[in-house]
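Morning, I've got a small favour to ask if you have a moment. I've been staring at a protein lately and its backbone has me curious. You're getting the sequence in one-letter code plus the fold written as tokens. I've dropped the whole record in just underneath, so have a look:
=====
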Amino acid sequence: LNILIVNLMPEKEKTEAQLLRLLSNTPLQVKITFLRMETHESKNTPHTHLEQFYSTFPEVSTKRFDGLIITGAPVEKLDFEEVHYWNELINIMDWSREHVTSSLHICWGAQAALYHHFGISKQLLNKKCTGIYKHKVLKPFESLVRGFDDVFYAPHSRYTDIEAEEIRNHKELIVLAESEEAGLFLVASKDKRLIMVTGHPEYDLATLSQEYKRDLSKGSGAPIPQNYFPEDDPLQLPFHTWKSHASLLF
């Protein structure tokens, strides 16, 4: 399988490890190509690392891929058109419809895909949605959730949400899983070529803890991630309750 990963996360090496760990959990041979934005300069990843391990869109635009993953990005409070690499990302998403068999969009990447392909907006939440949430499978016979328990857990970490009713009423989209607390989780186009995940199933055990400490250091009154630390005590080690379903999904 040839898979292209558009890595928009700030700490790219951590995201690489998370995704590679999940994608390697298969007997199939998997070839990964990482893609960076030409119109964005990363502040948290060494330039030499990007030059050595990442391609730019012109370098892959004539190729075809079995899969595409577009990650989340720390820009969700901005309007999509305000993101300075938005036009470049639009070109990649449009190109993917003809050059990629199936595309997976994560968190902000999912919101971007729903907005660009289907005209569905996002909305700012009153406070950050962060934690491990319980989800219910709505379409148990769909291949994307094959092997899932009826109820499963997954991390969320975002300041915005999507218009759920617009998705439910859209003739080209189906909702595969949702959470009473965190809202829609897994949405797909009816042809299964576009998959949108509103959470972060790829997160490692410690990722939410690291984000919580980062937010605290900014003095932003960061909320404790829900259902994550035992007894909501940040000094206690959380349990990894979403690993198996993340592996199944990927």
